[in-house]
Structure formats: structure tokens, C-alpha cells
Request: fold
Amino acid sequence: MTQAPSLTSTSTSAPDTPHGAPQATPYGTLPPASTPSARKPLSLPRLREMHAQGEKITMLTAYDATFAAVADAAGVECILVGDSLGMVCQGLSSTVGVTLETMRHHTECVANGLRRSQGVAWLIGDLPFGTYHESRDQALRSAVTLMQAGAHMVKLEGGGWTADTVRFLVERGIPVCAHLGLTPQTVHALGGYRVQGKTDEAADQLKREAHELQDAGAAMLVLEMVPAILAATLSKTLTRCPTIGIGAGDGTSGQVLVLHDMLGMNLGKMPKFVRNFMDDAHSVRGAMQAYVRAVKDGSFPVNATHAW
Reply:
């Protein structure tokens, strides 16, 4: 097992240990990320550059310091502290019960993990249900809470009325990731976890809302459970806003999966759009590296298997 560098500069256990050599820690280890010369910290300009050059963007969820550090070391570019933690960590039946304080806590944990490693990844925090719906001012207060906990960007769900909120936040220096298609926070209104944008009318609405969010300043857009052809067509027209797909086919600007799903640790039925990357890996980090390679080279997702 690879051990992490010492976490303190005052240790006297091995004063002659060369700088950067691994040292033991009391309660487990956090792996170092790649060297600075190999990978630079992600930023909005770098994400825009990747989008412009057609390089796929990789994203995974993480909810604690250790998994965040491992993902960072494995080369994952964006880490999402998703409100999916309500289901995979808290055992809730949906994301609706997740609170802002819970999101603040887990965002801080992930940020601490990145600081203990090398902190290359771009960190996104989910605004949970009911924390941005009341007013733009409420959205600002909620976003500030997550940004102060260590997030670089916040994510909110839905289109239409959210464009005004996105613009309000962006004008105040808060990067925003939007989310269309299946929006889990409104799963009860949608009638379940169903593919969105299947009819011409629904597809037109999704396209309209996506462009409104881009025009409002959204710097990234998650497309969840959207037909692959629709997602690919839309992704080509959003020249300033990279799309991150989950169950939306291979035509998006990047991909995201829930960490527990891609490690084969789902407590329920595995969604169609998931691939278990632990099947052929010898470690969690190896599975994450395989995921990054597969997204980058286009071998994941496979439309015939993982999309609609």
C-alpha cells in the first residue's frame, strides 16, 4: 500500500527523510497526486480550453477526504460533491432530504482531502433541494456556504426560472454548473427516474432551456438520462458551455458517474448507464484510472449499451 507524505512539518520521527518520501500516518493514508509538471490545477480557463479542443472532461462524485484524494491522484479532473450522498451515504430514498449543512460538511471533507494531496481537481458542490428555490438571495447565501467550505463551483438543477438565478450568481463571481434532463430533486414531479426529452416538444424545451442557461453564464451543464442523439446535437450547439453526460451517450463534452456505482457498490439496481470499473481493476485507484482512460479515448460510454 502506498503511503502518503507526512501531514505535518514538525514530525521528528524521521528528520533525515528526503523531501517527498512517503511516511506513515496514524489512521490510513492519502496518496499524492501527480507531480506539478505533469498536471496543473484545473480552472475555468483550462476547462474551456479542453472543451474548445474537444478533449473529454472526466468527473466523479466523492463525499469524503480519502476518496477525493484518490480520485485526484487518479487523474479525475472534476469532483462533484453530489447530493446523491443522501442515497449512497445516508440511505435515503431520494436526494430531497439532503440539507445544506450536510452538503457543507461533505464539501469541506472533500476539500480537505484535496489539500492533503495535491488539489489538482476542480471541486463542485451541489445546492440541495429547497436551498435556491425561494429567491436569488437565498441561492446566493447557499452558494456562499459551499464556496466557503471549499467548492470552486456550485451546481443547481432545472431550467426556465433557474436562468435568472444562474445569472445572479455568476455576476457575483460564483461559477455555476447547471443540470437538465432527469433532475433527481424533482423526481416526484417527473413521475420517477425516467428518460427526459423523448418527445419533440420535450426536446425543444430542453434545448431552449440549455441555451438560456448558457446565455445566463452557466460554465458547465450536466445532461442526465437524455437520448444520445439529442445530447450530442445539443452539445455541438453549446459552444461556450461544455456538457457532462450521465446516461446521455458519447456525444457530450465529458462524463460523470456516481463513485459507488462505478465501483460496483450500488445498494439497488445498477442503472443502465453505469459500467463497473472494478471488474478489471486491482484497486480503487486503478478503477478510477480506467474510467479516466475510457472517457478520454471514447470507449465509455457505449451508446448501444449505456444510452437511450
